[in-house]
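2024-03-11 09:14:02 DEBUG pipeline.ingest accepted 1 chain
2024-03-11 09:14:02 DEBUG pipeline.ingest length=159
2024-03-11 09:14:03 DEBUG pipeline.predict start
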Amino acid sequence: MNLYLIRHSIAEKPSLSKSDLNRELTSEGINLMIRGGKFLRTIAPDLGLILSSPYKRAFQTAEIIAESFDNKVKLIKENNLSAGCSTSTLIDVLSLYEEHNIAIIGHQPDISNHISNLISNDNINLIIKPATISKISFEAKIGFNKGVLEILIPSEVIY
């Protein structure tokens, strides 16, 4: 299995007038993710499924990625991937699907925690910027410390 863990792109700043759940991508975030989506299509042409947090900024990121694949990739809003999702919950969610190439759109610090937990027994201290794309491959079943980190690249370096 190839798992692509992607942090949502740049979003509006938190405010008292809008709930965190409804914060949207900024125009900069949209443009950044369009480039990121094109890059993802080059490294994951066989992407079969996108699972997204239900938060608006995450789902908007997922929609941009789906558009990069001409909307030929199944896109599912997964409530269990909300901010604060544990790696155990992520593994449980992934066990429900048979696709070999899956993208997860989530939040920080969840994405960095997932990467750390899936590739190491030690706590790896990562700070994942918005729109960063990572790829973890698994020879067999997904699990703690069973993956190999192959890609970790912020979208702003993609031209």
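2024-03-11 09:14:41 DEBUG pipeline.report The longest strand covers residues 147-153.
2024-03-11 09:14:41 DEBUG pipeline.predict end
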